């Protein structure tokens, strides 16, 4: 029998409620420093403003989240950003410099919203994001006795 203590599966710090059709998650907790992530908060603020200015505010909620476990400790403030939606593939990009222009992040948001299943080739991504792709995760398909639930 395993006697290791277990923490609850969905503690509030790691749960993010989605209120828009699509969600962009920006890491705002730095596991390497053991504190809040100032670059993550800065990127979160800029990305929220850019998504609203691009007319995508009804399509996307931009939220900060706990550690996404994709950062590189020696990259001095680079961020991890993810896109997710119900019944769509989830995308995770790393090494995003919050001081750089974020037009590629907005452009990816447009592409992601336009694709029914969120599945794209890396070649479809804006150029700066191609090299920063950490993961493209297929949409979950839950199968019960009654049938598939998406």
Automatic annotation (TrEMBL):
Pfam families for the chain? DUF1636 (PF07845)
- Give the UniProt keywords, A-Z: Plasmid
> InterPro entries attached here?
DUF1636
* Top-level division of the source organism's lineage: Bacteria
Protein name per its UniProtKB record: Metal-binding protein
